[in-house]
Specification:
Layout (H helix, E strand, L loop, with lengths): L1 E3 L2 E9 L3 H12 L4 E4 L7 H4 L31 H14 L4 E2 L6 E4 L5 E5 L2 E11 L5 E2 L13 E4 L14 E4 L3 H10 L5 E4 L13 H4 L2 H13 L5 H11 L10 H7 L2 E3 L2 E5 L2 E4 L9 E4 L3 E2 L29 E4 L12 H17 L18
Parallel strand pairs: 2-3, 2-7, 3-4, 7-17, 9-15, 10-11, 10-15, 11-12
Antiparallel strand pairs: 1-2, 5-6, 6-7, 8-16, 13-14
């Protein structure tokens, strides 16, 4: 990698050092591509270490490894978030991936010669390719009326939640019915009367840690349904993809009976605040001491200074390839190619495909190789 005129010249910049970025790095290295991975955390895996204390993966260890390195745990165990973090750190070290930690990207734009300029603080990188290897979950989303809640109410987003010791004495309201909301609600209900607000989003048809999963149902769902059937290469996948992008995910580990047994009270969604208290869709006002916003995230890609976003703020791409800006790619997004694209067991296939397209591109002075149309992948 050469340094020219205050800029580091490198063929490819990968933005994000989580499982998506490391997977891309693994495959780029196999192709002999000159690249660097920029990550804003202090250590590889810190994005997992910073999540709540009791978090475990939904996928068993047999499906939780990245390409080239199986997860070092019993196959039917469910790794903790810290075990996953340590695995990613080991993965980067095992394959000598060039991760630059503490590098928060501020801007990606076109360079004068047609390449890309990537700015990260005082650092400048000139690249022919940029792979944004990040999920949509970058900027916590909290409704504007949260500011109207009384200052006596302890409130924070699920991103800041670690354990129930953060809560004040009194009732707790969990706003959001996705997986984070469900797991946090069961945990807070041990010591706090807990309300969970939002419509039912459904749940997995079997327990991920139950007998059915051990008999192969989870493997069928992960490797066949999520990985092959629900993809942009199938009619059913193309039909359901838009719905899956814009709805809360069904509960995976926590089931309705688990919430009921824990004493969690299900209520309609929160729509406003009145006299400093949250107001439900049915008009009820809840006098609670704590509110945890499990309301999801916004994409947070405003630092990409390129015309590649739709009216919904999401990038326009074709299975991760941005035709409007040759050399720009995405990996790690929800349903990038298949339902499994945002999962640990599925990101490797997307990474391998994008790395292959990057390797096929020629230098800046010759014609760019256009990717072939997407087809069904193994």
């Amino acid at each position: 990698m050469a340094i020219m005129q205050g800029q580091e010249r490198v063929n490819t910049v990968v933005i994000g050092g989580g499982q998506a970025g490391l997977s891309v790095g693994y495959h780029l290295k196999r192709h002999g591509v000159d690249f660097v991975i920029l990550d804003d955390r202090a250590r590889v895996g810190d994005v997992w270490r910073s999540r709540w204390d009791s978090l475990r993966l939904f996928t068993p260890a047999r499906h939780s490894g990245l390409d080239g390195l199986p997860f070092p745990a019993p196959p039917f165990s469910f790794p903790t978030k810290d075990e996953m973090a340590d695995y990613l750190e080991t993965y980067a070290r095992t394959f000598s991936l060039p991760v630059r930690s503490g590098m928060r990207v501020d801007r990606v734009s076109r360079a004068a010669d047609g390449g890309f300029l990537v700015v990260a603080g005082d650092h400048r990188f000139h690249a022919q390719n940029v792979v944004v290897a990040m999920a949509y979950y970058q900027r916590p989303r909290v409704p504007a009326f949260a500011r109207k809640l009384s200052p006596r109410i302890v409130q924070f987003h699920s991103q800041q939640y670690r354990n129930p010791s953060q809560l004040a004495p009194g009732d707790a309201l969990i706003v959001g019915v996705g997986n984070s909301g469900g797991e946090i609600a069961v945990e807070t209900a041990v010591r706090h009367k807990t309300w969970m607000a939002g419509p039912d989003t459904g749940h997995a048809p079997f327990r991920v840690d139950g007998l059915a999963a051990r008999l192969g149902l989870s493997r069928f769902m992960l490797r066949v349904v999520f990985h092959r059937i629900l993809s942009v290469a199938t009619p059913i996948g193309r039909r359901v993809r838009p719905k899956m992008l814009h709805r809360a995910a069904p509960l995976v580990r926590t089931r309705p009976e688990d919430l009921a047994n824990a004493g969690v009270i299900r209520v309609p969604r929160v729509v406003d605040a009145q006299n400093g208290l949250p107001v439900l869709e049915d008009g009820r006002v809840l006098d609670v001491a704590n509110v945890i916003w499990c309301t999801g995230f916004d994409p947070g890609f405003s630092w990409i200074d390129l015309p590649v976003f739709g009216a919904d703020g999401e990038p326009r791409h074709h299975a991760g390839i941005v035709d409007e800006e040759p050399g720009l790619f995405f990996v790690g997004l929800t349903f990038l190619y298949a339902f499994s694209s945002g999962m640990i067991h599925g990101v490797g296939r997307d990474a391998a495909r994008i790395a292959g397209v990057v390797a096929a591109r020629k230098s800046v002075d010759v014609e760019i190789v256009r990717p072939a149309p997407v087809r069904a992948l193994a």
